[in-house]
Amino acid sequence: MSADEGLRAPTSADSVELEGRVAIVTGGASGMGLATVHALARRGATVAVFDLAAPGRTELASMLDVGVDRVRSVAVDVTDSGQVDRAVASVLAEQARLDILVNAAGIAPPTPFEDITEDEWSRVLAVNVNGTFLCCQRALPAMRDGGWGRIVNFSSTAGKTISTAGGAHYTTAKHGVLGLTRHLAKAYGPVGVTVNAVCPGLIDTPMARGLLPEGSLERATASYPVPRVGLPWEVAELVAFLASDRAAYITGAAVDINGGDLIV
Ligand code: NAD
């Protein structure tokens, strides 16, 4: 699979349904976050990447084949409240609005349960859960004031059952993301903000490739009803739909996208 095949939906028609919308995508420098940046920008949104090692804006635009005006790039550790405050404030100062937040930043160490240190446990919860909390809390006032908002949080099949490759801390964290998603959906639905989660199965990203030995992704997915590894753009298309007006009546959902691995 070439980088392009994994990143971009096979469609030539660019829609502008998100024209004028301003989005933040955490973890937007890699994998499904990066594919989501592409999907949102292609639909007309201006998208700010929040990531540890944020790529340069020009590099990002040319990698995704979108206009340089469509993307921003900010180095942020989502576990650091001061950094999240400053990064969200910089987007609001420049764009004067914030419509869409996608929380894709995540880590999933495969450590066996008895070997997980307290530090590692805390870090996994901090990135996956606290980071999602901090970004939601800082973004929501602008969405509420604008009367429209879309939040899409990355949980996982691990948030509904247990992780294939990540440790118990990862499974715990992704269950936590679903709890936060459901709570916020109830609280913010009345002011025009929907909050949903996506629950991907095994998707072909640097995270999944880094967790599993060579060939394991293909072997693990060969028996799925859709017998192959999922692609980042396939998840990004779902996120972009949830971020659109077309998904206005969906909130508090935890949407599976896993080739039928988990059918509930
Ligand atoms: P990835 O490793 O390709 O991308 C994750 C990104 O998050 C990276 O760019 C990384 O730098 C960033 N990140 C990590 N810690 C951060 C921090 N503290 N602050 C800011 N950015 C940080 O991973 P991916 O597979 O695209 O995963 C995206 C999301 O999907 C994650 O939340 C992951 O847990 C979840 N997920 C992945 C799979 C899979 O099979 N790949 C399955 C289910 C869920």
Summarize the structure.
Helices cover 43% and strands 14% of the residues. It has nine helices and seven strands, in the order αβαβαβαβαβαβαααβ. α2 (31-42) crosses α9, α4 packs parallel to α5 (118-146) and α5 packs parallel to α6 (168-188).
Structure characteristics:
seven-stranded parallel β-sheet, alpha/beta, Rossmann fold, 9 helices, 14% strand
Provide an overview of this structure.
The chain is of the alpha/beta class and 264 residues long. It contains nine helices and seven strands. It has a domain at 76-259: Rossmann fold (3-Layer(aba) Sandwich), CATH 3.40.50. Helix 2 (31-42) crosses helix 9 (232-242), helix 4 runs parallel beside helix 5 (118-146) and helix 5 packs parallel to helix 6. The longest helix has 29 residues, at 118-146. 47% of the residues are buried. Nicotinamide-adenine-dinucleotide is lined by residues 26-27, 29-33, 51-52, 76-79, 104-108, 127, 131, 154, 156, 200, 202-203, 205-208.
Largest sheet, in brief, is: 7 strands, parallel
Query: Which ions, cofactors or small ligands are bound in this entry?
Result: nicotinamide-adenine-dinucleotide
User: What share of residues are in beta strands?
Assistant: 5-15%
Unreliable residue runs: none
Mean pLDDT: 95
- How many DSSP-defined strands? 7
Helix fraction, binned, reads: 40-55%
Strand order of the largest sheet: 3-2-1-4-5-6-7
Give the CA-CA distance, first to last residue: 30 Å
Shape: globular
CATH homologous superfamily annotation of the domain at 76-259: NAD(P)-binding Rossmann-like Domain
Please give the count of helices.
9
Order of helices and strands: HEHEHEHEHEHEHHHE
Look at the helices and sheets and give the structural class: alpha/beta
Radius of gyration: 17 Å
For the record, the CATH class of the domain at 76-259 is: Alpha Beta
Reported by name, the CATH topology of the domain at 76-259 is: Rossmann fold
Identify the CATH architecture of the domain at 76-259.
3-Layer(aba) Sandwich
